[in-house]
């Protein structure tokens, strides 16, 4: 039997319903099941070029995304990577935290033998002109796409957003609250486009090869990250440097027991003097404090892309503050495992 594409539903606007189809901005997210979504996409079997299967692991508005759903996604994706009956994974997701989930999966799964493609929608399913059906069909087409050698075209976590744009989890950002083309990869641009059942990659883009030194890591992370209900994952918060900042916030967070802190700095890593003093005190007390820029494009000049084992107390990170938070959380989780070994 031909291997299937597994579609995992988590809710979001793509599964939302509006009380009035002519007012798509007023809706309730996560109302339709993944099975119902698939039933409403014409030609999706053709785009898949093979069988489809669907599973619902959550039904939430993605603004409420949490560690429990991330753990469930990791568990399902890891099982799919080891299942010969599955050739690719597509995940339906809300737009609000799509970039964070994509980055989490990128970090924990590593190099992929099978595509993992996320997709979303800006309009609910019953809008007069919903964007979800086309986005889902495009995501399935991207997951099914093959290279010239017959191997999967995509070997990193990607997202298919409005207009058939294909974005890497590394650069993906939501940049607009309501237009259909709500996502961008900033200065990097999309890595490709999906046109019907055809996937076109940006000139010069090379999909990571399987079997690289930093290969698949999903099983190891599944062992390292316990179910959050039994053992909470490390607590990392984000503090933003801004005009008129007042002292006390970092101290209050430390008093609550945070494990790490990300500072969204102004410009090229600059920080309000009061926050700078609080950061120094936190580091002296052993709290890891990572810096990211609040600018939508570019990164701090001395920023690096950290490895999960890179747990310095002061690090400028070449990620958005939200993705930086995910990376610090994972670094802390790995440190906890190593401390117990």
Automatic annotation (TrEMBL):
Residues 4-203 form the L-asparaginase N-terminal domain. PROSITE patterns: ASN_GLN_ASE_1 (PS00144), ASN_GLN_ASE_2 (PS00917), ASN_GLN_ASE_3 (PS51732). Gene3D superfamilies: 3.40.50.40, L-asparaginase, N-terminal domain (3.40.50.1170). It comes from the Bacteria. SUPFAM superfamilies: Glutaminase/Asparaginase (SSF53774). Residues 236-335 form the Asparaginase/glutaminase C-terminal domain. Keywords: Hydrolase. Pfam families: Asparaginase, Asparaginase_C. The active site is at 13, 95. Belongs to the asparaginase 1 family. This is Asparaginase. It comes from Comamonas squillarum.
């Amino acid at each position: 039997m031909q291997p299937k594409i597994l579609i995992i539903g988590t809710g979001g606007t793509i599964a939302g319903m509006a009380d009035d189809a002519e007012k798509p901005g007023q809706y309730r997210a996560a109302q339709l099941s993944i099975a119902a979504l698939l039933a409403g996409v014409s030609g999706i079997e053709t785009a898949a070029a093979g069988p489809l299967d669907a599973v619902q692991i959550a039904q939430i508005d993605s603004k409420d995304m949490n560690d429990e759903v991330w753990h469930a996604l990791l568990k399902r994706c890891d099982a799919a990577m080891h299942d010969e009956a599955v050739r690719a994974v597509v995940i339906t997701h809300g737009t609000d935290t799509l970039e964070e989930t994509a980055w989490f999966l990128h970090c924990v799964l590593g190099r992929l033998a099978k595509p993992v493609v996320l997709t979303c929608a800006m309009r609910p399913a019953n809008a007069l002109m919903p964007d979800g059906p086309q986005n889902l069909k495009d995501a399935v087409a991207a997951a099914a796409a093959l290279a010239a050698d017959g191997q999967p075209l995509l070997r990193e976590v990607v997202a298919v957003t409005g207009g058939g744009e294909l974005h890497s989890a590394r650069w993906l950002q939501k940049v607009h609250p309501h237009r259909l083309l709500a996502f961008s990869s900033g200065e990097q641009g999309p890595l490709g486009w999906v046109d019907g059942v055809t996937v076109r990659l940006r000139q010069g883009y090379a999909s990571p090869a399987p079997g690289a030194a930093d290969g698949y890591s999903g099983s190891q992370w599944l062992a390292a990250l316990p179910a959050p209900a039994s053992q909470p994952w490390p607590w990392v918060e984000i503090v933003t440097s801004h005009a008129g900042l007042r002292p006390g916030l970092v101290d209050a967070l430390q008093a609550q027991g945070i494990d790490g802190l990300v500072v969204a700095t102004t410009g090229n890593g600059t920080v309000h003097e009061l926050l700078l003093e609080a950061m120094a005190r936190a580091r002296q007390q052993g709290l890891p404090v990572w810096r990211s820029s609040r600018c939508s494009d570019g990164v701090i000049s001395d920023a690096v892309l950290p490895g999960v084992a890179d747990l310095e107390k002061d690090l400028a990170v070449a990620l958005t503050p939200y993705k930086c938070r995910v990376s610090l959380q994972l670094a802390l989780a790995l440190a906890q495992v190593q401390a117990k070994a």
